[in-house]
Amino acid sequence: MIGSLAGVITAKEPPRLLLEVRGVGYEVDVPMSTYLALPPLGSAVQLRIHHVLREDASLLFGFATESERELFRALLKVNGVGPKVALAVLSGVSADAFRAAIATEDVATLTKIPGVGRKTGERLLVEMRDHFKEIPALGGAVAEEPRAEALRALQALGYKPQEAQRMLDKVNVAGASTEDLIRAALQGAALKQERP
Asked: In this structure, is residue 168 part of a structural domain?
């Protein structure tokens, strides 16, 4: 099996790139998170590879980081999730945001990913929750995104998950800290209560 490839990027057509390694061109599908981090054509790059062998094909999936590859492999173990859906998940949200969605049982975030419907989203919540309990994040605990932390804080204040999510959905503050998001969500809720 192929575990990694180091070579020169000779073609880029999302989500696929052509990586030339010692005169051999390898077609590698990558998630958008990896694709956007790639250097320009003609540059050298090293990717971690997940190799899928089938009767009719040999498929290569490349990742910039080990944590992305581990998450991809974990997604493949979920019933009904194949390589295309797993790649879509990694393209639709960051690995940290995905972990946060699982931790907060945020199925709405998961169903926004192309190819992930309600049933698949719910299955991901159930099966991936167990996975994250068994396998800690590489390099220690993953810091949650401010939005996910704010959601957990609002739930700790007594708001139901759906209500807390609605409160945060009304807050549109790019690059806001957890504290800013909580403050804005609570102010929005207070204004709503003051209106007749």
From this structure: yes
Amino acid code (one letter) for 87: L
Q: What is the pTM of this model?
A: 0.63
Radius of gyration of the chain (CA): 20
Which amino acid makes up residue 183?
A: R
Q: Is residue 140 part of a domain?
A: no
* pLDDT tens digits, 126-150: 888 776 654 444 333 344 577 777 7
* Cis peptide preceding 14, ω within 30 of 0: no
**Are 89 and 51 contained in the same domain?**
no
pLDDT in tens, 65-120: 888 898 899 999 988 889 988 998 888 887 778 888 888 888 888 888 888 888 98
CATH number at residue 175: 1.10.8.10
| CA distances in angstroms from 110 to 64, 91, 92, 115, listed in the order given | 22, 12, 9, 10
Long-range contacts of 70-73 (CB under 8 A, 24+ apart): 70/135, 70/138, 71/95, 71/98, 72/31
Overall domain count for the chain: 3
Which range of residues forms the domain containing residue 98?
66-134
